[in-house]
Fold this sequence. Notes:
There is one protein chain. The protein contains 13 helices and seven strands. The protein has helices at 6-23, 29-42, 47-62, 69-81, 83-90, 94-103, 118-123, 136-143, 158-171, 191-197, 218-226, 235-243, 259-265, and strands spanning 130-132, 148-152, 175-180, 203-207, 229-233, 250-255, 272-276. β2, α9 and β3 (175-180) form a beta-alpha-beta unit. α1 (6-23) packs parallel to α3 (47-62), α2 (29-42) runs antiparallel to α3 (47-62) and α4 packs across α9. The mean pLDDT is 95.
Amino acid sequence: xLYIEVPECILCALESRMQEIKKFGVNDVNNYMRxxxxxSELIPRGxxxxxxxxxxxxxxxxxxxxxxxxxxxxxxxxxxxxxxRVIENAGDDITRYFxxxxxxxxxxxxxxxxxxxxxxxxxxxxEDAVWLGISKNKLGELLGSVRSVGYVVxxxxxxxxxxLLIRRLVDVxxxxxxxxxxxxxxxxxxxxxxxxxxxxxxxKVVSTGTRYPVFYNRSLLGSLKEHDLVISxxxxxxxxxxxxxxxxxxxxxFRAKCGPMIRMLRVPKNSxxxxxxx
Length: 278
């Protein structure tokens, strides 16, 4: 599956990248033409290459290897300041941390039909999730037999919630391996950053080595298959999984932000979703 919906996903890439260079103050019409031409060139390769390599074109236009660096720091700082609310709400209920991790996926760059609002991130962090393919009770039972988890991270800000969940998993005796992009992409955390945040935990961190998500790295698929459970954050990772027709034991945690995702899953717009392939 190259795209969930061909026209919508292509329009999303085009609008997202145009909004992004506008946000960075780009006014030269030639640069907008460059992005349009790059997107046209990438369309036959599918959604993930389209988004990854059009972002690399933006980096070249801006002459900046990490254009969202300042924004990522701000997101992490905001999330850190409200962690006490998460802990108070979830208490000792580890499945509640999964719901909050899904709700935290409101963080993103501008895209078609969705604009990130930091106030929404703060105010909607404790929303209940829509459970698909698994129930909250079933997850609780499942975790009792899980010994190894692969955790695929996504955006800055929400990563602070992920780190809380990762620590909870470690506390109950589960071995956790975190998978992160090796190079900067949008507002995603990198493996180097994850290692710094989790340096005082018994957690292994694995880099994809590139800007591409882990589900595009064939050399890491064997490692992913060895886990009793893979927890994957964000729409981009979910779509990368679908594009490659993989068959892994995955629990996807994300917000349904776009029309194609909403229609495919039949969930309300922007709802937190926990989707199981188990």
